Records
---
Amino acid sequence: MRRQVRLGIVVAAAVCIVGLSLSACVGNGPTVTAVPTETAVAPVEGDLDGNGQLSEREKEILESKRPREVTLPDGSVVAVDPSQPLPAPVVQSITDQFNSLAAQFNGDGLHDEEILGQMYQLVDQKQTEIGRGVVMVFSFLGYWCTAASSAKSPIQGELDQASVISQAQAWASARDFELIVIG
């Protein structure tokens, strides 16, 4: 019985001490006000990481997506929106320039290799002009091949035109490239 009384006194004392401690916290102490540490940043167009500023890479990406005007070899100017299919005059201009290079193939390995290099330079130049990648499907010495801007196309040359076009469509679509088939 004595043990129960002692236990009761200890519990009562503990409750009183905790109660007094808590009441001291609520009392007349200083008022604490939450101060925001960050201010809300208005969204910035093109800010991919959400830090409210554009990095050089984010600026490049934003610039590449803006509509632009392309001057064709005949001097005419055509509006191009990189998010839309290329206008027919731009496709025709690229096709004509590419065909003029392809016409120079002659079966001489070194010469043809140089022409292929010029074709890759052309599609890279067109990517800069139009704001999106280009993949060309063309015939070379009886094989259907591809040339893509800023990337090496993994598509191997084949005799089957439909197969190469199908592979190129899938490859171009996955990268938002414009597909141009010659021939």
Note: The radius of gyration is 35 Å.
---
Amino acid sequence: MIPRAGSALRGLVVSAAMLAASLQVAAAAGPATTAQPIAVHAADHPHCVVEITRFAFNHPLAHGGDPVKLFLVIRNCTDRTIPITITEFGRMIPPCPTIDPIGSSTTLAPNQRYVPSPLKILVPSCNGVESMVAEVSSNGSLLAWATTTLHIRTP
């Protein structure tokens, strides 16, 4: 479940900002280097503070029992040090189980690119989609988030 962001009006404003940011990221990125879609969103900030530049599984399709890795790359767009909290979690898309939230914290140096160790997952035995979300926040404010999916086929 995704945490609620506040009033309905604020949600509409956030949604519009996220759509605009994802369109800018898609236009600037050019052709994708992975077969897997990524949706990147800036939250409440018209200018980049922290950006998720990669959030993707190493394989877009896997079978139940396969090991996969989920890669995340974050960039500090500012000239100041920023303490961040990273939370990765699954969204419920039956029949596949939801992955519980996994959190970590770090401090980004000015203009630093941060690449944590990949999240290693043993693919559940189901036929469906595992949808993952990454959120980056600082002092309780959501700065950026991204989503990605893994298609699962179990024989």
Note: The radius of gyration is 16 Å.
---
Amino acid sequence: MNKYILLIFFVFSYQSCSNPIEKRLEALKKCKVHIVSLRVSNFKLLLPPVPKVYFKAKVSIENTNEIPVTLEKFDFTILQKLGGLRKNISLANVLYKESVIIPPLQSKTIPLELVTKFEDNRKPALADFLKNLLKAYLTGEELTFVLDGNADFTTSLGTLTIPVTSEKKLKLRNN
């Protein structure tokens, strides 16, 4: 009888105490990535009439863990969120392959340069988007942007790919 009680105790103890490495890897999923700023730095008109917009962006990576993490790469799309039933319009795709070490409980801001790929985007909503983009740039009003993609983090415990989605209202220029 004592053997069964001891066996039940060990099974219960094992299931209630999870692996500390698994806990740390789960904590990595709480790292946060979001857009800090997005500014128009240049604008060109290509033929056929397709605008080429150059942006300077800043993306913040926050390490909410008690161990340092290394951002190995991130791959994301920046979208401009359109109201109503229309879909988001893709501004630019970014693949950042430089390693960035983020100390425990700190954040780092990474500057990026983005170039639109409107010549590859033939959606009917593109004209409305360009009108909204130009209006927001000239008037200083805010537009809602979405960062959507993946970030690869490495620690002494292993590597983890985390899906990232961040939405923020931003102005396209300094007033």
Note: Confidence is low (pLDDT under 50) at residues 11-17.
---
Amino acid sequence: MVADFKTAIVLAAFIAISPATTSAQTAIVLAAFIAISPATTSAQTASVDDSIRRLRDADVAVVGAQLASLRDSSLNDSRVIAELVILLDDLRILEKRMAPAGSETIQDRAWYCTLKLNSSAVPRILASMKTLRSDRAIQLALAAIARIGKEDASIFAELMPYTRSATVVTRSHAIGALDAVGGNDSNTVAQLAAFLKDDHPNVRWATVNTLRKRLDHLGPALEILIELLNDDSDVHVLISNHAAIPQKLCGRVAELLAEIGPPAKSAIPRLRQLMNSFSDQDVRVWAACAVCMISETAPPDALEVIGEVLLSGMQKKYGGNDAAAAITKLGPRGLPLVDELQNARNHKSPTVRRAIIAAFFAVDPEKAISRTLPLVEDKDELVAQTAIRAISSRCNSDREVIDSYIAALERFDGIYSEPANAAIDALEKLGALAESAIPALKRLSDNDKAPETLREKAALAAKRIEQP
């Protein structure tokens, strides 16, 4: 976080430029800041509650500056936690921005601070949530618990009332929080499984996700999951490879059944129906993947479905599918699809090309590097970066590998630095074995078009390789 002298500058700047800031507000902010500093005295501690409580009524710029200046050492103070939760209800704008990012509010900044808390803050967050007025504020608090929470039976029980909210998003966030604090046992699974019957698919989707790390204790929940293969509800997932395209709940269930494996053998008839006739290609892929993982050996017709979908839409730059992810999950069982994976290196979609890298290493680790090397030269910077990192993780120092890293350095065009950054990391990791890359690293360090950070990184790598 911001150091003391920087904090003082920030506060002074905000106070100076904010005409609405009164001397009384200034005193409140400074008193609160002093009170939560590590050097807090007992007298200051006694007054901190009032100071922080009144802080939310101060000028918006002052509140924003105070949030920005909070140090990590202060964040887990119980009074600070309570104030952060209260500020989740504060929609005053700190900074106006153009779409799509939108304006930053005090609510946003307070939430970012809650994500830096540790698990010991969860009880205080829960206690303070009772003061929140808006559904959105409650949802953000629950999302914070889902992010920082650890197993705790008492917290699990306290969260249960939020699963009965009339608001779907609140129920979904509550499920996420339960996932974080719930145990890996049959009792927890039984309680979570009840939400598989919620009347909204978003909640059912969230519940399916909670079962992924509890596969050894599914019990009766397995039969409910298999029933959900008949549920073709659409669910919009905010963070996914499919952006605005809705995903099918039955596809998500099929993916989970692939992880469960043989114990889900009673699902095969329905999975085969989805694999052969369902309209959504990703549902077909995950149904076929589940059939492969549940069966003793992967059936050729199921593998054929996955390969067919992988190579579909080859000319669509913005297309994509889950076939490569399914092959990655298959591991060595997906080896018969290696030809399809190699053909997919020519897919127009960078999303597909990037996904096949993990699949190469999953199905045949021994030959994965040679199959991945062509993607180091990919025109999409993220595909090239992913390929370099995947190869580097194997610490391979073959001549052709080092040459591919050097080529990535020399392809730097002054705009996209991701491949060059990854190549520098890979070469430095090899140390003296990458001596042949020193001239290229030095040229990059002298490149005026390169960002200063990239130039410095290249120079340091060259020095470390030269003098290990």
Note: Residues 1-49 have pLDDT under 50 and may be disordered.
